[in-house]
Every structure is written in structure tokens, then in C-alpha cells.
Design a protein that fits this description.
With 140 residues, the protein is mostly beta strands. It has one domain. The chain is built from two helices and nine strands. The strands form three sheets. It has a four-stranded antiparallel β-sheet with strand order 3-4-5-6. It has a three-stranded antiparallel β-sheet with strand order 7-8-9, with no helix packed on it. It has a two-stranded antiparallel ribbon with strand order 1-2.
Amino acid sequence: MLDVAREERVHQGPLPLSPNTTLTWLGFVENTPTLATQDSHGMLRVLSPQFGGSWVPVFDAQQARKGSEVFWVVGVGRGELSCVVCPAGGQPQVQPRPVVTRLPLHVPVLDGGVQDVELESTLIRYCGVGGWVGGVFICV
């Protein structure tokens, strides 16, 4: 990734994707220089300055889906994913104007029970990934 204004390379390295997927969205977290991606399985990752500049998963569409719907990413910011919910394999219609849905970011963790999942996700957000949006902790 290049910062054109400063004429310098900001990040270099492989782009992580889930196995057997393609890149479906690439953009920046709202009002930050933080890069975000989503692959065709619906895993949204953010390039975090914590963890040595690692790509950190912040949303797993497979966990959030109801049925076979697809989340067409519009943007990421303020602890939420802005997207258009589409039928399986679909894309948003232009007319009528699609409804943008806001879904909370949720760090994917192993499921050891509903309470454990929520506690682990909260702990990771506050202690690990919490500062990735401009140094402000995410409160989902």
C-alpha cells in the first residue's frame, strides 16, 4: 500500500484470504488510514497496527447470516459494517435504491458456549484489537 501524498510505502506483504476464496471488497475504515478487506466467504479483516501490522478478522458473515444471504459491503466504521443484504449469489439492485444495513463488528472466536463467545470477543476487542480504529477502542 502506498501513501501517494508522502510518496512512501505504508505496507507491503501478502493479502490474507480464506482458503478457496477471492477478494470481494477492499477499502478503508471510515475516517482512518486503516485498510480493510472482505473475501468471498464473508470474512472481513482489518490491517491492525497492533500485532506487528497483522490482518485481524473483525467480522465473519457466515456467523451473522440467516440462510444463504450475502452481505455486499458498502463501508466499515465506528465498530460496524455497512452493507446491503442480498440473496445468495446476488448483487444489490440499483433501482429501487438498496437499503443499507448496519451490523456490529464481532471478532470471530471459537464457540465454547454463548456466554464464553461474547466474553472472549469483548476481551479481544478491548485488549487486543480494540485500538485499531484511530487508537479508539471499539465498543460493540
